[in-house]
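Consider the tokenized backbone below.
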């Protein structure tokens, strides 16, 4: 398993995925951007030691989003299938980073 700093570093280096042509993937892309914004609270923790989780259940939001993207990817073909895989992988990385953030911050309290 990747360490918290390894997953954080990877997340900061990975480009944000594309939206695709399918309306469902476009909406998922928008929701993924919202989740990504919540996960940015991790940056404050890494850079300044401030542990302040987002005001929503980010992990539940990401799990639901990954299930939705999976369903879309199963129906998609060609470029949209690639986009769905990319979106899912990015959401999974966000889930890993945020869950490790919660564990790391919770152990410091």
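A designed sequence for it:
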């Amino acid at each position: 398993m990747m360490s918290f700093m390894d997953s954080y570093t990877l997340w900061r280096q990975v480009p944000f995925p594309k939206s695709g042509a399918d309306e469902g993937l476009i909406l998922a892309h928008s929701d993924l951007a919202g989740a990504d914004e919540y996960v940015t609270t991790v940056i404050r923790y890494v850079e300044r030691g401030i542990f302040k989780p987002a005001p929503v259940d980010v992990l539940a939001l990401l799990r639901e989003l990954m299930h939705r993207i999976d369903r879309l990817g199963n129906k998609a073909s060609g470029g949209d299938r690639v986009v769905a895989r990319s979106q899912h992988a990015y959401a999974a990385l966000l889930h890993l980073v945020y869950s490790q953030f919660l564990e790391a911050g919770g152990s410091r309290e």
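The chain has a mean pLDDT of 95.
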